[in-house]
Amino acid sequence: MNRTLRIGTRGSALALAQTGHVADSLREAGATVEIVTISTPGDRSSAPIAEIGIGVFTSALRDALANGEIDVAVHSYKDLPTARDPRLSLAAVPPREDPRDALVARDGLTLGELPTGAKVGTGSPRRAAQLNALGLGIEVVALRGNVDSRIRKVADGELDAVVLARAGIARLGRTAEITETLEPIQMLPAPAQGALAVECRVDDVDTEHLLQSTLDDSASRAAVAAERALLAALEAGCSAPVGALADVVEDLSDEGAVVLRLSLRGVMATEDGDLLRASATGDLTAAEELGRALAAELLDLSGHATASPAGRS
Ligand SMILES: NCc1[nH]cc(CCC(=O)O)c1CC(=O)O
């Protein structure tokens, strides 16, 4: 293919870094690429995400792609709404970064070392619910802004710590500032955290094939599919904060052969701030069924009736 592929990205340092990696991989595969920066309402507003709505970072990019202003869009997968965009194809999920959340605290402190009353910043209801459930006596403070400005609040002494996605910090080359990577048993990440979604127009089959063959990682794609199916099913049933993480694990088949399976863990906060947890394993080829089945279990635990027998399709 000798046309120039225009790759669209948001203009934040994080978005530019992750799009740069995608562009490098495509160039190595022989493609000619150009990076086009697109400003989104999410970049221009400092209101809480809960107010401006999911999709604020991604819909402008998707529109530019559908309109033909760009040929490829690179998103942080967790920022995409769960509803499919019929104009676009999710051509590739590149190998996922470490999906865990990370603490950046003053004086090298870990969560357990923070004193009572310590101010910990996060804008995410999921992180806030899981931090509060640890019972550490810390004060969770609402916070937004880019990775740099959030970390700066710790350096400036305004906050004792912030919790961020490890992947975002890593893509900016700042892992040295992490004081603790939070284990999923304490803090399950957002569904699809650490993964990228690379889209093209649904009718642009040449680009779709190039992206798929150059960038896609099937294990990352399956893990993220399970987590996002869980999220989608829970969104339909309630608006509670949700965390989920799928790992690809080795298992033995009935015949004794090693097979890869998905192990999915999920957490959902109740209105009282209690956490409901559940986990399940399933076939790599049935990732979405696994996600829906675990969502049904969580909704069951929460007392919400499930409309349809999810996971049995
Ligand atoms: N909601 C913002 C956002 N979207 C993607 C990332 C970075 C990491 C990722 O790709 O998951 C972040 C920052 C954060 O949550 O700390």
From TrEMBL:
Catalytic activity: 4 porphobilinogen + H2O = hydroxymethylbilane + 4 NH4(+)
A Gene Ontology term for the protein's cellular component: cytoplasm
Residue ranges constituting the Porphobilinogen deaminase C-terminal domain according to the UniProt record: 223-299
InterPro entries reported in the protein's UniProt record: HemC (IPR000860), Porphobilin_deaminase_cofac_BS (IPR022419), Porphobilin_deaminase_N (IPR022417), Porphobilinogen_deaminase_C (IPR022418), Porphobilinogen_deaminase_C_sf (IPR036803)
Database matches in Pfam families: Porphobil_deam (PF01379), Porphobil_deamC (PF03900)
Domain of life: Bacteria
GO process annotations (BP): protoporphyrinogen IX biosynthetic process
GO molecular function per UniProt: hydroxymethylbilane synthase activity
TM ranges: none
Cofactor: binding details: Binds 1 dipyrromethane group covalently.
Key words, A-Z: Porphyrin biosynthesis, Transferase
PROSITE patterns, alphabetized: PORPHOBILINOGEN_DEAM (PS00533)
Co-factor(s): dipyrromethane
Domain Porphobilinogen deaminase N-terminal: residue ranges: 5-207
Residues found modified as S-(dipyrrolylmethanemethyl)cysteine: 238
Metal-binding among keywords: no
Protein EC: 2.5.1.61
Subunit structure: Monomer.
Note: The porphobilinogen subunits are added to the dipyrromethane group.
Protein family per UniProt: Belongs to the HMBS family.
Entry function: Tetrapolymerization of the monopyrrole PBG into the hydroxymethylbilane pre-uroporphyrinogen in several discrete steps.
Full protein name: Porphobilinogen deaminase
Gene of this entry: hemC
